[in-house]
Amino acid sequence: MSTFWSLWIIGLTLTNLGLVLWILLANRKVASRDDAEPENKTTGHSYDGIEEYDNPLPKWWFQMFIATFVFGAIYLTLYPGLGTWKGVLGWTSHNQLEREQEKARASYKESFDVYSQMPIAELAEDPKAMKMGTRLFANNCAVCHGADGGGNFGFPNLTDHDWLYGGEPEAIKTTITHGRVAAMPAWKDILGEEKIADVSQYVLSFTDRAEDEEAVAAGKEIFAQNCAACHGADAKGMHATGAPNLTDDTWLYDGSAKGIRQTVRNGRGGTMPAQAEKLREDKIHLLAAYVYSLSLDNE
Prior knowledge:
Blueprint: H1 3-26, E1 42-47, E2 50-53, H2 59-78, H3 93-116, H4 120-123, H5 127-140, H6 142-145, H7 169-178, E3 180-184, H8 188-205, H9 213-226, H10 228-231, H11 257-266, E4 268-272, H12 281-296
Antiparallel strand pairs: 1-2, 3-4
């Protein structure tokens, strides 16, 4: 914040507080002997026989107003509230959050330390650890992968045995820690619509859904020249490239003939964000065990 706007806020705040205090003091009426006279008990306003009394504020009420000003003055001295003034205590929401997080880390350190020493495969069999893993997953992963880990369109299903980058415990942990960036290039300018249709028919043939045998034959050659480098000669995918297996019934995107053509034509892209800066290593270890346990349930 610039000096001008800081001074502007300070001036505006103090001016308004001063005006409110002045109004309070200027309109305070102290009871006197003159108040015994009937004409001094009303403001002089009368409507339909109803008169407005001109009584002073009760003393306790007036003192309560003054107490709020005293409290406000102390607060604005101790805490930020006047432009760039940081307050005598130097409080910020950031350092308060850090203190609370440090308390939380100290509180849970013993539990997490025990689990961080256990192998992921063993940890996945621990019911208490998996309850903690469930909460970590719900807070950090469910928005993309679904509350049950079953995935959404464009987000992998974590409950089956089809893994883009490997489903071994350490591979899962690496994915969570460092993230993944997937990119299926667009082929429309390289292949053209006819070859895209041919290679799509070839991909459909892996699951016996092809409708044009001539297109399948032509698509096989196109696949070998352009797709096998990532998906493998057998089209079963490769964890090193993150290319999916095209020979099963698991599809990250639309697996219909139209959907496959769309993918080949325009490409696909996805990012699994790295969690290393967001979650501590011990939490990532526990989360990896929970994700690993999801596929164990379907064995």
